[in-house]
Amino acid sequence: MKTLIKHKFKLYWPLIKSLQTALLLITGITGYISAKCPAKNVNEFVIMTVALFLTVSGSTILNMWYDRDIDAKMNRTKHRPLPSGELNPNEVLILGLIVSFVGLALAFSLSFIFGAVVFAGLFFDVVVYTIWLKRRTAWSIVWGGISGGMPILAGRALGLGHIDWIGILFSLAILLWIPTHILTFSMKYFEDYQAAGVPTFPSTYGNRKTRIIIALSSLGAAIAIATVAYGLGLSWGYLRLFAVLSIGILGLAATSVYKPSERVNFGLFKYASLYMLGSMIMIIIGMMKG
Amino acid sequence: MSIAIVNRIIFLLTGILAGYEIVAGMDDFSDLGTAMFTVSFGLLLLASLLLLLMGFEIMENDYVAVVTSLVPVSLSLGLVVEKLDNFHNYAILISVAFIIAVFLRFFSKGKIASLSLGVLHLLSGAVIFILPILLYAMKKADIEILFISLGGILIGIGGVFLGFLKIGKMTLRKEQIHNFFPMLMFLTTVLFILGLRTV
Predict the structure, then answer these.
(1) Which of A49, A175, B105, B110 has the most other CB atoms within 10 Å of its CB?
(2) Omega before A38 cis (within 30°)?
(3) How far off is chain B from A72, nearest CA to CA, in Å?
(4) Does residue B130 sit in helix, strand or coil?
(5) Under 8 Å CB-to-CB from B51, ≥6 apart: which residues?
(6) CA–CA separation, A110 vs A99, rounded Å?
(7) What's the structural domain count of chain B?
């Protein structure tokens, strides 16, 4: 029995893309702490964290379920448990729906506005991005980005009780950061996306234009996150650190335009994740220190 | 060449320490001093993150070599700004030296190009090493300021190794240098942070 559970867990765990889910969860926690710091209501904080974890995981599972046919055509993803046939698709669909609904129920139990924003994130990710647009247009990533910006907006809305300009700017920062993350990835795995017939910016507009878009969106993300940090009243020390980290991402983005290489491209991809994680941790620490 | 896990951890710790110093370690400096120290610790932070993510090969890039030479330059400038009344002469000297070094690096060939930044390192390194000793000897600073001199020695050693590696005059293999470079960078950062507490 123990072995069976362990085996099942090993198969199901990759369905939630743990690193991506963790990063989105941290953005949600950051949004909450930015509004309500220190978090005095531990119950609310824990339920929010669980609700976000379940809805983000649920939407990722549903995304994996829907995309299993294209995943099977891509070298990078064909060994995942679903496309490789190790998991039953119906079982995965049911799991994705249950996890999503439980997450949404928890979210609405906390507050209507929190639930509504979390639902919007789930809807944009599963219905608009995955089912409707992903196989039709390269611009689908905009909706993926909007969806990715919902956890941080939800966390802040829960803390405040309403949506404010900082919450929207937080979402915008994530939306603008996502092209840096996704487009560098789609350049690295260009052949895979071609094989699966998924339109991407590199296949639609070419690598040079894609790199320019990455550089511009990195600049936009850096400006948005710096404005948020300033708006939250973080001390000059944190703002200086934001500036340093932003120079790093802008430098890499500019290098990828003027001196493109596989190393710089993937370096930018990895740095972008670290940049977002670092920014969120900085905001959390900065807010906690008052 | 892939980086060993322990070296990745050391790079990460170096980055965190440099980031901490930027956030919390510069409250008592003048605006100009803060700007200079932010540049040097910012570059230490970015260098450790980029080495962690992209590997040692980025050190062979000319632009990276030029930008990282700003670590000792800005640190020495920060020290001079904070501790000497007349910092303008040194600021002009080091700026001119930087411009010449960058020009030679990109527009000359052979050993001159490789060693151009070495002179810059030597000049700024001498200030980082000597100034704290003088300040301590004149009783204008506590003994802890000598940590900066120690850090200066370490960063100097690193610069010399990398410089000789570039021109091929090195008895140590590249891999051996790469093995101790992360610890050298970490200790340099720690020593600078400890020393700056008394500036």
Answers:
(1) A175
(2) yes
(3) 29
(4) helix
(5) B3, B11, B58, B59, B182
(6) 17
(7) 1
Q: What is the mean pLDDT of chain B?
A: 89
Q: Is residue B75 helix, strand or coil? A: helix
Confidence (pTM): 0.90
Q: Which residues of A touch B49 (CB under 8 A)?
A: 248, 271, 274
pLDDT tens readout for residues B6-65: 999 999 999 999 999 999 989 889 999 999 999 999 999 999 999 999 998 888 788 888
- Domain boundaries along the sequence of chain A: 2-289
> Could you identify the residue written with the tokens 């930015």?
A34
* Sheet strands (E) in B11-163: none
Is B76 exposed, middle or buried, given 0-12, 13-18 or 19+ CB atoms closer than 10 A? buried
Q: Which CATH architecture has domain A2-289?
A: Orthogonal Bundle (1.10)
Q: Which of residues 4-43 of B touch A (CB under 8 A)?
A: 19, 22-24, 26-27, 34, 38, 42
What does chain A look like in DSSP terms, one character per residue?
-HHHHHHHHHHHGGGG-HHHHHHHHHHHHHHHHHHSSS---HHHHHHHHHHHHHHHHHHHHHHHHHTHHHHTT-TTTTTSTTTTTSS-HHHHHHHHHHHHHHHHHHHHHH-HHHHHHHHHHHHIIIIIIIIIITTT-TTHHHHHHHHHTHHHHHHHHHHHSS--HHHHHHHHHHHHHHHHHHHHHHHHTHHHHHHHT---HHHHH-HHHHHHHHHHHHHHHHHHHHHHHHHTT--HHHHHHHHHHHHHHHHHHHHHHHS--HHHHHHHHHHHHHHHHHHHHHHHHHHHH-
Kindly list the residues from chain B whose CB atom is less than 8 angstroms away from the CB atom of residue A282. Answer: 23
Q: Give B171's pLDDT tier (boundaries 50, 70, 90).
A: low
